[in-house]
C-alpha cells in the first residue's frame, strides 16, 4: 500500500504541476498549441488545421498509450505456461490497416482544402502591389495608383530608411513578387506565409503572385527568408496596415507635391502629414536600419577594449 500511495502521490503531483503551468494560458492560447497569432483569414485557416491535427494526434496517442498500458496490466507473465499462440488474425489486421489509411486520407483532404484556400486568387483584387527585392532592400510599387507622370506610386528602401509597404485592411491585396538579382524571399511572420522572389519569374516557371486580406490595423515586420548575401539578415521591411479611409488619405497624398520639398510626398512624409497617431508613425516601428558605417563597429570595439 505504501508504494501504491507513493505512486499515486507522484502522479497527482505531476497533474498538479501541469494544471498550475496552464493556468496562465487562455483557452485560445491552449488551443493554438504554440501556433503564433496571425492577422489574415488565411493564417486563421492554417491555425485551424494545426489545432485539429494536434488534437487528432493526441487522441491517437492516448489510444496507443491505453493499449500499451492495457497489455502491460492484463497480459503480463503469470507463470511458466506458454500462452496460446495465434499466427493470423485477419479482422485485427484489417482494422490496423484500414484505420491508418482513413486517418491519412482525412488529414490529406483537410490539408489540401486549406492549401487551396490559402493560394486562392480573386480575379479583381482591390489593391495590387509589385514587390521588387534586390541586394539588400525592397521596393514596393502600387500598380493601381499612378503619379501625375504616369508612374506607379513607389516606395524604395535605403540604408537610412526601412521601406514601408502601406496597404488597407479588409481588402483583397495582390502581391506580385520578383527579384532584380539573386533569389530572395518575401516573408511576413504574421501572414504565416512566404514566397520566394526569383529574377525573371516568368522564365523560371514560378507562380510569383499571391493574395491575402489583413484583418486588423497595425505594423508588421517583414523579412527576407532566403540567404542572399552579406547583409541578408538586415534586409527587413515593414507592412503598415491602415483602415480604408486612412489608406485612401495616404494614397491621395502620395500623388501630390509636398509644398515644403516641392517633390511628391514620400511614404514617411505622407504619414507625417496625416498625423493619426502611432498607426501613422513616419518610420518603421518593428525594425530599424542597419548601420552601414563600417568604422562604427571598429570604434565601438576599441571603446570596449
Automatic annotation (TrEMBL):
One GO cellular component term noted in the UniProt record for this chain: plasma membrane
GO molecular function: copper ion binding; cytochrome-c oxidase activity; oxidoreductase activity
Reactions catalysed: 4 Fe(II)-[cytochrome c] + O2 + 8 H(+)(in) = 4 Fe(III)-[cytochrome c] + 2 H2O + 4 H(+)(out)
EC number from the UniProt entry: 7.1.1.9
Homology family: Belongs to the cytochrome c oxidase subunit 2 family.
Name this protein carries in UniProt: Cytochrome c oxidase subunit 2
Lineage per the UniProt record: Bacteria, Bacillati, Actinomycetota, Actinomycetes, Pseudonocardiales
Role description: Subunits I and II form the functional core of the enzyme complex. Electrons originating in cytochrome c are transferred via heme a and Cu(A) to the binuclear center formed by heme a3 and Cu(B).
Regions crossing the membrane: 51-73, 94-112
